[in-house]
Each structure stands twice: as C-alpha cells, then as structure tokens.
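Recall the central idea of this unit: under ordinary conditions, the amino acid sequence of a chain determines the structure it adopts. In this exercise we apply that idea directly, starting from the sequence alone.
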Amino acid sequence: MISPALVLLLSAAAPPSSTLPEARPLGFEARADRARVRLGEPFAYEVQIRHRPEEWYRLPAGPALDPFQAEGVSCRRDPARAEVRTICSMRLALFALGPVDVPDLVFLVDGPTGKSRLDVPGPRITGLGILDPSLSPASIPLRDIAPPVPLFVPSVRLAFLAVSVLAVLWLAAAARRGLARRRAGRGAAREPSPAERFASRLEALEVERLPERGLCDDHLTRLSEAVREYLGALAALPALDLTSGELLAALGEARDRRLDLRGLELLLVGADLVKFARARATPEACRDGTEYAQSLLGRTRQSPEGTGGLP
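Accordingly, the structure predicted from this sequence is:
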C-alpha cells in the first residue's frame, strides 16, 4: 500500500495547469476590504476556500495580477471537524484608473483522484485619481512655474558657523548612539541554536509524559511540529507551511545521509492522519516518533562542520 506522502512525491511532475480538470471545493470566497482605492494605495485582499481534509490547495508563487501589484502573499491551512479552510491573504495596489476586476487566482489542487485546478475570480475595484474624480480636465486650473527666488545671506561667516555647530551636534549624537548600541550588544543574551531549541522541546514533551496520560494524539502532533521547525531552521525551508510530501521532496534533493527520510515519512504521515483524518495515535507510534526525533538530534548535532546544519 502506498502512503499519502509517497503519492504526493510521485505527483510532483504535474501537467500544465491549463489542462487540469476543474476542482470542486465545498465553497470559496474572495473579498477586498475596499471597493474604491486611490492610485497605488494598498488594500487588503483575501481568498477563503472550504474543502475536504484530504485535499490540498496551493497558490503558485508570484501570481500575475496586472494592473494590480501584490505583496505579502501568505497562505495557511485551518482544519476544522469535517472540513478545512485554506486562507490566502495579501495586499494589493491598483495602478489603473476606473473600474478594474481583480484577475483570477489559479490554485493547484492535490486530492485523492489526482490533480486539478480552481480559478477564483476577484471583485471589481475602482481606481481613483489624486484629484477629485467629479472634476472635468478642462475645469482643473493650472499654474505657471514660479520664477526663482534669490536667497540673501548677510554674512558667509555666520552661515559657516551655523553649519559647523550643526556638524558638531550631529557627531555627538552619532557617538552616543554608537555607545548605546555597544552596551546593548554586550548585555544581550546569546540566541539559542536550532539544536538547542529542538532539544528543549523534546525535554518538555518527555516531562509532560502525554502518552502515559492517554494523550498520544497531542504528543504525536506536537512532536511532528517540533521536528518540522527544526528541519526548516537547518535547511532554510518554510517547513511549517509545506505539505508532508513537499517537505520530504525538498529534503530528498539535499541528499543528506544523516536524515532518515523513511522514519521522517512515518512520523509526518502518522501526524497528518491524526490532525486531518481524526485517526488515533498508538503508544507505539508515539514511542517510535520520539526515538526518531532523538536520533535526528544526535545525528545533526555531530555535523563535521560543527554546526549541525544541512548542506
């Protein structure tokens, strides 16, 4: 039987989105916080998609939204009891006048039946100019360029003295700021390394003894999040935002011999089933996951370079 994580890995080479069938979510909505904006003025834009837990909706990076410009694009997945909400938010700025529809956002979808796509149409936004839009161009008065105005300095010596005083004050202020930064740097505590943070989280889980209290589901979920955060810090990956298949594929390309990808797959798939399919974690799964996390910490701490990082 092929696990869900391996299915995602095998589906990495997807056909062009224009040839994919249309997805059928439970519902979706696109909304902007304003319908009328001034030229280049940022406004909030959000798309919410309600779908089944076994489906994954992904927005490709850098969506083409001309004549809008997008920044701060981020997506998150909020699971509920019987459904999941994928929420993508961003800030848009319109660089055109008059009514303009926000272009469709194209989502790529992974599901039990394969890949599909969802086109989410946007609302209509009206771009306003800096001037009053009710005025006609002929009624706007234009002024001629003002002539140059002479600047009279009674004494060059006084001007030089004023500049000298300002320069001395600026240098004194810069020196005080530099001294304050050095004092703050000496007193600042050293930031813990990713391995130290990971070890602290594992120790905290061990102290809580969740499996012994019948809370295996919570133990496996928190253990999976700790492993994801640690691998993301080492490999410079947004591991908490990637699906299990995407994370395994990215780590597989790194070809780091210290990583047991099979053990990682078992931990991630088990945690996904608990989190999204309401499966129950067994004490054996909690024990195996904990042993894998401790083994991962030991192997990455013993890096030849002494840093524990992935190449």
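Residues 1-14, 304-309 have pLDDT under 50 and may be disordered.
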